[in-house]
Design goal:
seven-stranded mixed β-sheet, alpha+beta, four-stranded antiparallel β-sheet, OB fold (Dihydrolipoamide Acetyltransferase, E2P)
Length: 478
Amino acid sequence: MGKIRAFTMPKWGIEMTEGTVAEWKFAEGDSFSRGELICLIETAKITNEVEAEYDATVRRIVVADGGEAEPVGALLAVFDDGSASDEEIDAFVANFKPAQGGVAEGREKKQQAKPKEAAIEGESDKPKAITIDTNRPISPEARRLAEAEGVDIADIEGSGRGGRITFQDVQQALRGPAGPSLKGTTVLPGEDGAFASPLARRIAAIHGIDLNGVSGTGARGRISKKDVLAKVPQDTGSAAPAPGAPFVPVANEPDIQPFDKIRKVVAKRLTAAKQDIPHFYLRISVNADALLAVRKTANMVLGTKASVNDFIVMASAKALARHRDVNVQLHGEEIHSFPHADISVAVASPKGLVTPIVRQADRMRIDQIASATRGLIDKAKEGRLGYEDMDGGTFTVSNLGMFGIDNFDAIINPPQGAILAVGAAERRLVEDERGEAVFATMIPMTLSVDHRAIDGAAGAQFLQTLKTLMEDPEQLFA
């Protein structure tokens, strides 16, 4: 028997409980070497690359690309040195048990408990065991399951090598064929022979389209909404109606887009944060004229292109280093206070809102912060953020000023204790030190604070230090 190895859902970080196989880089039967990329696994908001720790051959892929999320410890694939038989691989898969104490083990125990409960309710429903005598190739585990459940294997088409019946084939036979559940549709006059969805029929009726001349691209040639819309003249609804013509409404059906995996995680985390964290808000406005002048000089001297947001990250980091009671994470009933500021920067990516981290920003120069931020933004837009880019963070800066948003209240990113929401800079009439009315560039900021970990006075003192650093930006370089 060859050396068989289980490849299970890895665990990255304390909060990870499940992940999804985004893409396998090898197929069953392929061999790989140590250090080669095996697969991509999506967890929360990131996609991690998994590299091989040893040389092996892919013998069985248990969880296919893009399937449902699997708990940590769940079996994803089986590797070996290429010498194990198919029967040995089948037996290994059937007898696999998740590691003790893992998420997958807990789920398996729940699943095992359900049949026991059902048995108590009605033993008479249990299928009668049979004995199978056949010359057809069938794995030992598949035979045992078929005999225990009374499955006739005569009609089962084996999917294994050489038509061999596998454990999965018997499971599929137990589930039975997935027959269509057809319901009645509205039949319009003259279109009895058209196989179309109800929505497609309504749109066709509105626009006077003969469905008998439309080719369906849906399942079994069914005509769908998009097939009918393709026949609608492009200027429908845009041309000016004739004078005195009555208003005729057109189809206004929604384009339904279910949550993707990232959006599900974001919705779950933000809902929990808003429900569980007692937020309170502190607001302040900062005169940014001096900062803008220093930014221009610093970019010329250092040969960089630091943005205003980079300076806000820098000022926030230095203020946090002075106010460690705000630079915190909350874990259960413990407050973790950090000496250095790891600033999460909110970035809109193709996968949704992500918050990559600028590590120890309080120890960086402005050109280093600008370079680190630019690199993280590029990785986010390309979908290449790794776990190390997202794990941790002691504070978040969310800037919507570039979109013209005056001000807003941000939801805290747990387990952090606070988040800074930055609005759009605008010229306002203010009173200067001499009591004269002058125009100044003011930036509104709102600090969302977790009242369980941070008191109002601590948050206010932090904002005062942040305001001082931004209005006297020479201190940032001291």
